[in-house]
Automatic annotation (TrEMBL):
One BP term from GO: DNA damage checkpoint signaling
Subcellular location: Nucleus; Plastid
Major localization class: nucleus
Name of the featured protein: Cell cycle checkpoint protein RAD17
Superkingdom assignment: Eukaryota
GO cellular component: nucleus; plastid
Gene3D superfamilies: 1.10.8.60
MF annotations from Gene Ontology: ATP binding; chromatin binding; DNA clamp loader activity
UniProt keyword annotations, A-Z: ATP-binding, Cell cycle, DNA damage, Nucleotide-binding, Nucleus
Region (Disordered): 400-425
Amino acid sequence: MSKLEEFESFAERTRKYGLISSTVTGQPLAPVILLIDDLPVVNGNATYERLKRCLTLLVQSVRTPTALLFTDHGKADSTGFNMRYPEELLQSLEYAGACKVTFNPITTNSMKKALEKICRMEQVKVSADSVEAIAKGSGGDIRNAITSLQYFCLNPHSLLPQPSSSCYSIPSKESRDDANASNNRIPLTFGRDETLSLFHALGKFLHNKRESEGITSDGGLFALNEKFTRLPLKMEAPEVVLSQAHGQARHITDFLHENVLDFLSEVATDDAWVVSSYLSDADFLLAPPNTMLASSLRSENLQHSVAASVAARGVLFGNNHPSPSRWHAIRRPKLWQVEQSLWQNKCQMWRERGYYYSDIDKHVKQCMPMHSVIATELKPVLKWLGHRVCGDFGTNDTHKKPVNGVSLGDESEDRSDDDDDIEDW
C-alpha cells in the first residue's frame, strides 16, 4: 500500500468515526485537535487530484477540529510541480470551507534564544556556531529547528562532509576572516532544502561568472594542459545548483541549448563546438531507453541526473570566451514547438490512416503502414493523383481522441502549462 493510499484510508476513518464518545467511556474527553503535519508526496496530476479530493472531503465532513500544517518556505524560488501544488491545494481547501491562518516566520535571534534555552533545560552542550546554523537552516520554523537540534545532539561528532542541497555550512572561527573560508566549513547535514528558480539556475550556468585573473585555481594532484584549465567559479558545484532548482533534466538541457549561443563570443567558434558536443552527449543520455534493455526508475533517474550535470558542466567548461556582460532574455526552446507540431502531424496521420483503411478487414489493419510509409509513400501518391480526402482532418479533435491508449488532451495540457509558466516569467 502506498503512502497516498494509507493517508486516504486514515482520512476516511477520521471522517466517518471521529473520536470515541464520552457516553461510551463514562469519562469526559479533554479537548482534542487533530494535527496533520505531513502529507504524502504526489508526483503528477492524477495523484495530486486524489490528494485534493481526499482533503476536500476531510474538510467538509470531519468530526474533529483538524489543522493542516503547510510551509511556504522557498515557494517563490521554486518551479517544480511538487513545490507549486501547496498553493493550489490551499485555495481548493478554502473553497471547501477551511479557514486559513498565517504565521510569520520566527526571526533568527528569537530562534537562537529558544534553542539555547532548550539546551540549558536539557543540560546539553551545543556550540554557539551550531545553534546559529540550526536557527538559520530552519527557515523560521521552530518545530524544524527543535527536530534538527535533537538529531544534532544524538551524535554531534559524526557529521561528515556530504554534497547535499540541505547542508548549511558553518565557517569555523579560524576561517571567518579568511577570503577562502568556503574551503574550511563544518557541514550541517539536516535542515530545510535551499531552493532556486529554474531561471536563476540557468543564469548561473549561462553567465558563467568566475573569479578574477589574480586567483589561481587549485592545481590538485596533477597539472592540466592550459586549454583544459579554468578559473574558479563564483557559485556552488553545478550539481548543488541543479538540486536546488528542482528542474527536469530535459527542460534544463533544452533551455541551455536554446540560449547558450547568446552568451558566447561571436568569434568563439571552438567554444560553440565544445558546448554543442556536451549538449549532444546530454541529449543522448536523455533519449528514451531501448525496450530490449532492462530499465528501472532508479537507473532512469540517475541517467537524467547525469545528463543534467553533463549539460551544465559542458556549458560552464566550453564557454571559455564569454560575451560581454549584459542583460539577456531567456527564450523558450523552439524545440518544444517543433515537438508539438510533430505530435499533431502524427495524430493527423493516424486519423487519415483509419479513414483510408476503414473498409478493410480487421486482421488486415494490423499490417497497415506506419507514419514513415504514410508520409513518404501514401501521401505523395495521393497528392500526385489529385485525391482530396473528404472530411476535416484539422487539429481540433487531436487532443480529444486517444491514440494507442495515449490521451492527447493530457499531453497538450501539460505543454500548455509549461508554456504559461515561461510566459509568466
